[in-house]
């Protein structure tokens, strides 16, 4: 496998690897390549770490009072900007 950092689709391959979105064949070829290419191994490991962190992400549940306060603040800022 040619070093993926030297091909046009390198970003898609590295991100796809981290996101576990590559075909089994392409993922296996990239993993074999990472055994001999330090730069690709590092890029692949960093992408896997990013996706692992994203997998653990949990949305915050905001209260209705927060939504009201944010909307009121936005209206106030809009009025202030329009009065300038």
What is the radius of gyration?
22 Å
Largest sheet: none
Question: How many individual helices?
Answer: 4
Number of domains: 1
Q: Tell me the number of strands.
A: 0
CATH topology: Arc Repressor Mutant, subunit A
CATH class: Mainly Alpha
Approximate strand percentage: under 5%
Helix content: 55-70%
Overall pLDDT, averaged? Answer: 87
Output the structural class. Answer: mainly alpha
**SSE string, helices as H and strands as E:** HHHH
Name the quaternary structure: single chain
Tell me the CATH architecture. Answer: Orthogonal Bundle
Given as residue ranges, the uncertain stretches (5+ residues, pLDDT < 50) are none
Highlighted features:
84 residues, mainly alpha, Arc Repressor Mutant, subunit A, 4 helices, elongated
Tell me what you see in this structure.
The protein has 84 residues and is mainly alpha-helical. It has one domain (4-82): Orthogonal Bundle (Arc Repressor Mutant, subunit A). It is 68% helix and 0% strand. It is built from four helices and no strands. The protein has helices at residues 10-18, 24-34, 38-55, 64-82. The protein is elongated, with a radius of gyration of 22 Å. The model has no long low-confidence stretch (mean pLDDT 87).
Summary, kept brief:
With 84 residues, this protein is mainly alpha-helical.
Topology at a glance:
Layout: H1 10-18, H2 24-34, H3 38-55, H4 64-82
Helix pairs in contact: 1-3
């Amino acid at each position: 496998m040619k070093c993926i950092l030297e091909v046009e689709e390198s970003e898609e391959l590295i991100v796809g690897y981290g996101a576990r979105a590559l075909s089994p064949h392409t993922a296996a070829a990239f993993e074999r390549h990472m055994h001999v290419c330090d730069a690709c191994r590092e890029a692949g490991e960093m992408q896997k770490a990013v996706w692992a962190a994203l997998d653990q992400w949990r949305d915050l549940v905001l209260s209705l009072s927060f939504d009201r306060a944010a909307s009121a603040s936005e209206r106030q800022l809009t009025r202030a900007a329009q009065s300038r």
